[in-house]
Amino acid sequence: MGRLPRSPSLSNMKHTFPRPSPRSSRREEALLLPPSAFRLPPSAFRLPPSDCQTKNQEPRTKNQEPRTKNQELLSPLPITFLFSLFPFPLSNPMRFAICNEHWGNAPFEKVCEDAAACGYQGLELAPFTLKADPRTLDLADATRLVRIANSFGLEIIGLHWLLTKPAWLHITAPDPLLNNDAKIFGQTLARFCGALGGKVMVWGSPKARNLLPEWDRNEANLRAVDVVRGVAEEAVKHGVTIAMEPLGPKETNWMNSAAEGIEFCKLVDHPACKLHLDVKAMSAEDKPIPDIIRDSKEWFVHFHTNDPNLLGPGMGEVKYEPIIAALNEVGYTGWLSTEVFKYELGPKVIAQRSIDYLKQIIASQAKA
Known about the structure:
This is Sugar phosphate isomerase/epimerase. Helices cover 36% and strands 10% of the residues. The chain is of the alpha/beta class. It has one domain (64-367): TIM Barrel (Alpha-Beta Barrel), CATH 3.20.20. Helix 6 links the parallel strand 3 (155-159) and strand 4 (200-203). It is globular, with a radius of gyration of 21 Å. The chain starts with 48 loop residues before the first helix and ends with a helix.
C-alpha cells in the first residue's frame, strides 16, 4: 500500500489537537437508521396543488382526457426538481450555491428565501444544522427540505461538515469502534444526501481526522481509507460522490494539500471518492491556487469559494480572476459554493456580496 506524502510543515508542528473523545463508557446506542428509513411512497414528494398551480388555471373540462398516474405524480413538482435529476448544468457552465449554516438557527424557509433572492441556484447543507442528532435524519426530513427548497427554485446540491455531530466520531484514531461508527454514519448520510437529490458529500471535519504524535501515520491512513471506502461503496448506489477536502495546517495535521488529497483518493481506489478544492485551504499551500486547480483537474468535483479572512469571495485579499480563469481552462462545470466562517455582517449581506463579485468576474472574462 502506498504512503501519503508527509507535509513539510508537520515535522515542526506542535501537536495541540484534542484527542478524539470515545463514546461515554461505550454505553450510548448508535442511533443510526437502516436503509428502510429512506423509503417513502412517491406521493410523499407531491406538493399541494396550490403551491404549484397558478390562480388563473382553468379546471379540467368534461371532454378533457383524465391524467395518467404518472402525470398526477409529476405535474405538481417544481421544474427545478426535475432539473436536479440531471448532473449537468442547463445554462451557465458554473452555477452558484451557498452553505446553509451561515444562517445559524434561522428557519429553513428563511435560508431559502434569502439565497434565492440573492440569485443562488443551490444550497449545500450541514447535517448538524438540521437535527440535534443528525444520525436520525431520514427520508421524511429529506422530503420536507426538498419541497421547501424547490418552492424557492433551489436545488439541494449535497452535504458538508459531515462529522461535526456526534463529536466523538473519528476516521484515523486507533479505535475500531469509533472508525466503524464513522463509517456507518457516513453511509446514513450518503442515503440522506441521495434522498435530497444531492450529488456530493464534502469530507472535511478536521477534528474527526486529526492525528496524535504517537499514532503511526501510515496505519492511520489505512484506517481512514477503510472508513471512506465503506462510505463510497454506499454513496455510489445513491448517485453521490465523496469529495475529500484538504485543509490547512491551522485546522488539521492530516491531508493539508491537494496533492495529499489525490494520493488518498488513489488509496481508496473507488470511483465515488474524489477531491474537493477550497480557496481558503489552498491559500495555505505554497503553490499558487491556479496551479493547484490545473494539477487537480482529473480529480476535483466540487469547489468552495471564500477567503483566508474567513469571509466570502471578493471580501479579502484573494483575487478571483486567475482562479475563475483556471477553472474555465480545465473545463470545470460544477458548483461554485460559498462557505464562510465569520457571520457578523449578516448572512444575506455576505451572500449578496459574494455572488455579485463572482458574477462580475465571470462576466468580465466572458467578454474578454
